Amino acid sequence: MGRCRLSVWEATINLFTTFSISC
Question: How many CA atoms lie within 13 A of 16 on its CB side?
Answer without folding.
Answer: 6
